């Protein structure tokens, strides 16, 4: 039997199971030594076993190479997935920039058309109010979409710094005084909190809810939708209500407007007209140029 040719045959290379190799090895071991007809070399059983073992090592190398190829393919798939994710992220960012530019262009157009600068409302306050209103509108959380209320707390409390705007007809419906929390400041509000018992105003966007009659008469519940900035409003019992200490009489007598425990209080007469108008799902925004708020607001940043 020509063992040299036998051990290098396709049949030998196809043997992959250890049990088959063991049986073949025992067979070869007990076989007698033979001489080949083609040459004078003599092959012993041990030589055949060594040859078989060499093929076993080669098979292991093939398995290792296959594993490397599979790993490379897996890494390539992961890289492709990451590239796809980055591409989707870039597309989303580009779309957001286009949308943001359109919203800001619309806001500036309305601001100029309504001459809001003459009313004392800062351009930045209106732009941010319009951006947040747009984002809340997209999310479907506003049920009364034709009214937008803005409290511009960058102004003195001695100014009529609350604005109620007819969004559909681009008209100013009301402009009146609004008080801030007693611990937010005296004439100017410059410190804000979302914590219970802080007696401070909370910045951000609110959605108006139902009315009720309490110790301050007709009052309006509001839900804070700016997480981390005003979402404790309900637990803090922050509502819109009328108050006699928010009036020209108090301002003239003490030189400063009255303050609250955190509620945006209005003159009693104005609240009677404004609360029924803005209740049940309209957008209410308290603005102050806080870098932290503007950078982290989930409503403004559309998160």
Strand order of the largest sheet: 5-4-3-10-6-7-8-9
The CATH architecture classification of the largest domain is Beta Barrel
Query: What is the subunit organization of this protein?
Result: single chain
Domain module tally: 2
Fourth CATH level, the homologous superfamily of the largest domain? L,D-transpeptidase catalytic domain-like
Per DSSP, the total helix count is: 8
Give the overall pLDDT as a whole number.
Answer: 86
DSSP strand tally: 10
The CATH topology annotation of the largest domain reads as L,D-transpeptidase catalytic domain-like
Strand content: 15-25%
The low-pLDDT segments are 32-38
First-residue to last-residue Cα separation: 79 Å
Mass-distribution shape: elongated
Helix content range: 40-55%
CATH class of the largest domain: Mainly Beta
The H-and-E topology, N to C, reads as: HHHEEHHEEEEEEHEHEH
Given helix and strand content, the structural type is alpha+beta
Q: Any idea what the radius of gyration is?
A: 40 Å
Could you characterize the architecture of this molecule?
The structure is a single chain. The protein is of the alpha+beta class. It has eight helices and ten strands. Strand 6 and strand 7 form a beta hairpin. Helix 3 packs antiparallel against helix 4 and helix 4 packs across helix 5. The protein starts with a helix and ends in a 7-residue tail after the last helix.
Tell me the layout of helices and strands.
Elements: H1 3-7, H2 10-13, H3 18-30, E1 34-35, E2 42-43, H4 45-113, H5 123-139, E3 147-152, E4 162-166, E5 171-176, E6 204-214, E7 217-224, E8 239-243, H6 248-254, E9 265-267, H7 268-278, E10 283-287, H8 291-296
Parallel strand pairs: 3-10, 8-9
Antiparallel strand pairs: 1-2, 3-4, 4-5, 6-7, 6-10, 7-8
Helix pairs in contact: 3-4, 4-5
């Amino acid at each position: 039997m020509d063992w040299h040719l036998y051990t290098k045959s396709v049949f030998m290379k196809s043997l992959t199971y250890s049990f088959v190799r063991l049986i073949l090895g025992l067979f070869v071991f007990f076989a007698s030594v033979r001489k080949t007809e083609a040459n004078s070399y003599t092959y012993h059983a041990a030589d055949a076993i060594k040859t078989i073992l060499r093929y076993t090592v080669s098979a292991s190398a093939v398995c290792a190479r296959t594993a490397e190829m599979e790993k490379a393919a897996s890494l390539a798939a992961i890289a492709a997935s990451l590239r796809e994710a980055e591409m989707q992220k870039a597309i989303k960012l580009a779309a957001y920039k286009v949308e943001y530019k359109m919203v800001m262009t619309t806001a500036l157009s309305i601001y100029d058309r309504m001459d809001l600068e003459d009313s004392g409302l800062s351009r930045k306050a209106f732009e941010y109010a319009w951006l947040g209103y747009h984002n809340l509108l997209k999310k479907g959380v506003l049920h009364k979409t034709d009214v937008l209320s803005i409290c511009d707390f960058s102004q003195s409390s001695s100014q009529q710094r609350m604005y109620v705007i007819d969004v559909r007809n681009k008209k100013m419906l009301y402009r009146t005084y609004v008080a801030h929390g007693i611990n937010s400041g005296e004439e100017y509000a410059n410190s804000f909190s979302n914590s219970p018992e802080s007696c401070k105003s909370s910045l951000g966007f609110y959605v108006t809810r139902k009315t009720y009659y309490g110790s301050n008469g007709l009052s309006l519940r509001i839900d804070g939708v700016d997480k981390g900035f005003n979402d404790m409003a309900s637990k803090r019992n922050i509502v819109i209500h009328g108050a006699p200490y928010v009036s020209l009489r108090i301002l003239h007598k003490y030189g400063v407007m009255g303050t609250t425990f955190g509620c945006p209080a209005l003159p009693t007469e104005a609240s009677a007209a404004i609360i029924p108008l803005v209740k049940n799902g309209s957008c209410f925004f308290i603005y102050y140029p806080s870098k932290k708020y503007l950078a982290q607001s989930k409503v403004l940043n559309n998160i």
